[in-house]
């Protein structure tokens, strides 16, 4: 009986060994091998204990002992055999079809197509062709939503924003300037981008020059809003450093970051206030060596802004102090003078400033105020309206600006 049990166990072990030797057993079947070996070992140990007991005692095993051997060793051996016979999933690398080069190429192209489809932006709804303002507004909305999904501007080194809080409608006066910017900058980058690219029209770099307080910074912010592009605003203090080579390195880092932002947002606006503090005239040998390095870095970077859809805007009160090579065509394409506003422009500025405040001034009253503010800049007129608002609140306790409030502000 004991011999019969041993023969059965040997046959089971032989079947397990055949399964182990077969090519279908791979890494994920290691648990089968280990489990089977453990259970078979237990069976053999049980058989060995029984055999030793018989040999040492010299007595024949009782029927109960033989039954115990069969009940213990038999089921364990059977379970071991069943584990070894578990259906295994073949490794992908063993399938002849999947090793075929054409199959591999097909799967690679399929994965690439699926990944590309995941990256495709959702189709945009068609815009209305009749209203240019509606088209630009739709473009800005779509562009901002795309930027919010793709670009985290807060993690960048420079202070980028997509919300300036200023629109073209807020810019009083400057009608000729706004018309020029729409024609040469806004339309080629928004509603007619594809046609502009086909015609080889690249974004124009601009310099706003004129007296202080005439609205150069305000206009630059409004332009960025109209374009629907991220804006970074800097001045000379943001790049100047007392350490050797650091200023030019900051200029380099600025434009490299702008290129990265433009690649994500399909464009970017870099506004540099007080440009004369960094793009200094190098003539007559007056420039310091570090200033020359900064100018040279600007020259190299300004030549490549069009390739990356970057609009560079510089503002200065002294156009004549800028380096001549830096403002030539090809680097700076448009030089727009922002002068003192005339009466019509002052009236437009006042209307724009009063439009988002509660007031009861008529157009005739606003025109009369404009006639009395000759020589005032856009910044002066903004301060005038703010002073009138304070008069309305603190002098009269009302939340509405009146003509009397404005007259009092003029007198103060």
Automatic annotation (TrEMBL):
Matches recorded under Pfam families: AAA, AAA_lid_3
Alphabetically ordered keywords of this record: ATP-binding, Nucleotide-binding
Ranges for domain AAA+ ATPase: 202-342
Residue ranges, annotated region (Disordered): 109-152
InterPro entries in the record: AAA+_ATPase, AAA_ATPase_domain, AAA_lid_3, ATPase_AAA_core, CbxX/CfxQ, P-loop_NTPase
Composition bias, Basic and acidic residues: 131-152
SUPFAM superfamilies: P-loop containing nucleoside triphosphate hydrolases
Molecular function GO labels: ATP binding; ATP hydrolysis activity
Domain of life: Archaea
PANTHER family in the record: AAA-FAMILY ATPASE
Protein name: AAA family ATPase
């Amino acid at each position: 009986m004991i011999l019969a049990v041993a023969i059965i166990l040997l046959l089971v072990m032989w079947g397990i060994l055949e399964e182990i030797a077969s090519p279908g057993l791979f890494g994920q079947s290691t648990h089968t091998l280990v489990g089977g070996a453990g259970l078979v070992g237990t069976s053999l140990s049980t058989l060995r204990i029984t055999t030793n007991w018989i040999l040492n005692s010299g007595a024949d095993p009782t029927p109960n002992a033989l039954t115990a051997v069969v009940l213990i060793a038999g089921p364990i051996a059977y379970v071991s055999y069943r584990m070894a016979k578990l259906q295994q999933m073949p490794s992908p690398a063993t399938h002849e079809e999947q090793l075929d080069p054409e199959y591999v190429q097909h799967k690679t192209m399929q994965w690439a197509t699926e990944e590309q489809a995941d990256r495709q932006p959702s189709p945009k709804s068609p815009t209305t062709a009749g209203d240019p303002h509606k088209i630009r507004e739709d473009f800005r909305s779509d562009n901002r939503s795309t930027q919010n999904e793709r670009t985290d501007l807060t993690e960048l080194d420079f202070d980028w924003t997509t919300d300036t809080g200023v629109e073209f409608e807020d810019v009083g006066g400057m009608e000729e300037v706004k018309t020029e910017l729409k024609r040469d900058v806004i339309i080629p980058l928004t509603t007619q981008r594809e046609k502009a690219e086909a015609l080889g029209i690249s974004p124009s770099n601009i310099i706003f020059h004129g007296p202080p307080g005439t609205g150069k910074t305000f206009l630059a912010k409004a332009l960025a809003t109209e374009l629907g592009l991220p804006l970074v605003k800097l001045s000379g203090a943001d790049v100047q450093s007392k350490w050797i080579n650091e200023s030019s390195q900051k200029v380099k880092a600025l434009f490299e970051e702008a290129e990265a932002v433009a690649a994500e947002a399909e464009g970017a606006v870099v506004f540099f206030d007080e440009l004369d503090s960094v793009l200094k005239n190098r003539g007559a040998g007056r420039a310091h060596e570090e200033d020359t390095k900064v100018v040279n870095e600007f020259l190299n970077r300004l030549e490549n802004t069009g390739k990356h859809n970057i609009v560079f805007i510089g503002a200065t009160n002294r156009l004549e102090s800028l380096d001549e090579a830096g403002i030539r065509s090809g680097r700076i394409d448009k030089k727009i003078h922002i002068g003192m506003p005339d009466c019509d422009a002052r009236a437009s500025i006042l209307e724009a400033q009063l439009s988002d405040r509660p007031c009861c001034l008529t157009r005739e009253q606003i025109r009369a105020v404009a006639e009395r503010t000759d020589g005032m800049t856009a910044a002066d007129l903004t301060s005038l309206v703010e002073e009138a608002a304070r008069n309305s609140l603190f002098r009269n306790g009302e939340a509405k600006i009146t003509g009397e409030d404005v007259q009092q502000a003029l007198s103060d």
